Amino acid sequence: MRRYNQSSSSQEKHLTFPYAIATYQRRFNTEHRSSKAMKQYWQALLRTKDFWFASSSRLLLQDLFTSLAKTHAPITKIVCFGLGAINLDKAWYQSAVQYMAMFTIIGALEKQYKETDPSRAGIKLLLQDPNYETKDYELISKLWPGKKEDLVFVSDPDGLLAIDAGTIVVSAYLPIQVPLVQIIADLFHGEPGSGPAMIIGDDMNLDPTKASYSLVERGAPHVARFFDQRYEKIDSGFGDYALEEEFMDDVLGEGWMDRKRYYWLNSMELWARKVSGEP
């Protein structure tokens, strides 16, 4: 790797490129074999689903994407990276709400599209996460309200290869070692005006004039230029979204405010590809 790095400022003890390589020993989960454990998971998901359907955030999300369906590029698929395994530990359980949010977005878009084209094919949901276990495939498939063939679990690199102009790309709290937006910017670099229709992901401090950046910043200069030239940040994004207190207790556990844990969408940005003719 050092041989291919021709930077004169590099030091022998550093590998100065924006990639991380790590290995770990994985112990596969076998909870799907236990009917008792799977029943506990399903009961928890049903309770959370009831909270979700009664929440103001679901209605806000539904209204937002109903509006975007009228003004922006038509969506044919949503590709999600790292939404997480279903885990009843409150430290990780918010993944369940992330999936429900995706279902709501798809439902809102499909309803709007079918008003003008009743025969339009359903929007596909592609999910990629190396942490999925058999129980996750079973639980998410059971929770999915659409057609069976429209829910697809994929492995790397199939999620990236599926991204096109009709795609919403979604990631949440993606580890900085995964340079998703950098890869997207590279994939569509040679095609002016191209790129996924929308991107929902972690906050980025984008500055096209910035000359250097650190490994913990997603907004590398080429990423900043890519977004600045082709995308608009939807200011009516997710800053005002909130889950009701009882719902937050269900998802994050009691005392969530003291631990400074909040609704996942509050930390996300929504970017949409500029409509043709916009500066």
Structure description:
- Helices cover 35% and strands 11% of the residues.
- The protein has a single domain, classed as Rossmann fold.
- By secondary structure, it is of the alpha/beta class.
- It is globular and about 55 Å long.
- Strand 4, helix 6 and strand 5 form a beta-alpha-beta unit.
- Strands 3-2-1-4-5-7-6 form a 7-stranded mixed sheet.
- The protein contains 8 helices and 7 strands.
- The mean pLDDT is 88.
Keywords summarizing the entry:
single chain, SRR1-like, 279 residues, Rossmann fold, SRR1-like domain-containing protein, 7 strands, 7-stranded mixed beta sheet, alpha/beta
Largest sheet: 7 strands, mixed
Order of strands side by side in the largest beta sheet?
Answer: 3-2-1-4-5-7-6
Radius of gyration: 20 Å
CATH architecture level-2 label:
3-Layer(aba) Sandwich
Average predicted local confidence, pLDDT:
88
What would you call the structural class?
A: alpha/beta
CATH fold name: Rossmann fold
Helix content percent band: 25-40%
* Beta-strand proportion: 5-15%
Work out the helix count: 8
Shape: globular
| Uncertain stretches | none
Number of strands: 7
Q: What is the H-and-E element order?
A: HHEHEHEHEHEHEHE
Specify the CATH class: Alpha Beta
Distance between the termini: 41 Å
Number of domains: 1
Protein name: SRR1-like domain-containing protein
Domain SRR1-like: 62-228
InterPro entries: SRR1-like
Organism: Pyrenophora teres f. teres (strain 0-1) (Barley net blotch fungus)
